[in-house]
Amino acid sequence: MENSSIEGTTDPLDPLVERTAGPQPGRRLFHAGNGLVIWAFLHYSGIESGPAALLIGGLAAGALALDIARLNVPGLNRLFFRALPAFASPRERSRVASSTWYLAGVALSLALFARPFAEAGVLVLALADPVASWFGRRYGRRRFGAGSVFGSSLFWIVSVAILWSTAGLVPALAAATAVTLVEAAPWGLDDNLAVPIATAAALALVTGVLG
Asked: Rounded to the nearest 5 degrees, what angle is found at the Cα of 135, between the Cα atoms of 133 and 140?
């Protein structure tokens, strides 16, 4: 990406990226709001999973094309960080935006799993993930994988509350535990892709085993 090659010069992207550091409450609220809008669309629109997956997958493909463009054109990347200081993340300086992975994760969940499980995955991503991120960054002290014990505990609690209504208490406990471990794993896979797919997969597996 655009880096300084002459000692003493400053990359014009640096101050723009620095503005996006920190807990980013606006980003967390935006993340939750988007997820709730997507869930409401899926739950109330009556659109079938196949067309919904194609629609959201098409949006993901469009977002990926924009990411590729900005990551290869320094001026576009500066525009991205200048226009979205409350929503961009420092890691997106040289990586695909989380919103792109968000759409891809939802689309794949719809394509691969039963609708109730996919919708539950959207809610876990929308609510459990930002709660864990916000409180974990501010108050988490003891590390657990890529996050903290406190953040992962909150992720698990919120996930259980969401999944209970979909699958019952025991399946919710088991699925939430599995998804929490996936969310905390330090493997570099974006949570916005991993969480909805892992949630739907865990529910499918647990309900298949427990009935």
From this structure: 95
Helix (H, G, I), strand (E, B) or coil at 153: helix
Q: E strands of the chain, at which residues?
A: 143-144, 147-148
Higher pLDDT, 104 or 5: 104
Distance CA 54, CA 60 (A): 10
Pull the structure tokens for residue 161.
């509350």
What is the band of 211 on the pLDDT scale with cuts at 50, 70, 90? low
How many Å apart are CA 54 and CA 108, to the nearest integer? 9
pLDDT digits (tens, 9 = 90+) for 39-55: 999 999 999 999 999 99
Residue with more model confidence, 123 or 8: 123
The CA-based dihedral angle spanning residues 76, 9, 87, 102, taken in that order and rounded to the nearest 10 degrees: 60
| Both tokens assigned to 9 | 């010069």
Q: What is the pLDDT of residue 109?
A: 97
Q: What is the rounded distance in angstroms from the CA atom of residue 99 to the CA atom of residue 87?
A: 10
Return d(Cα 177, Cα 184) in angstroms, integer.
Answer: 11
Give 87's DSSP letter: T
| Ramachandran angles phi, psi of 189, nearest 5° | -75, 135
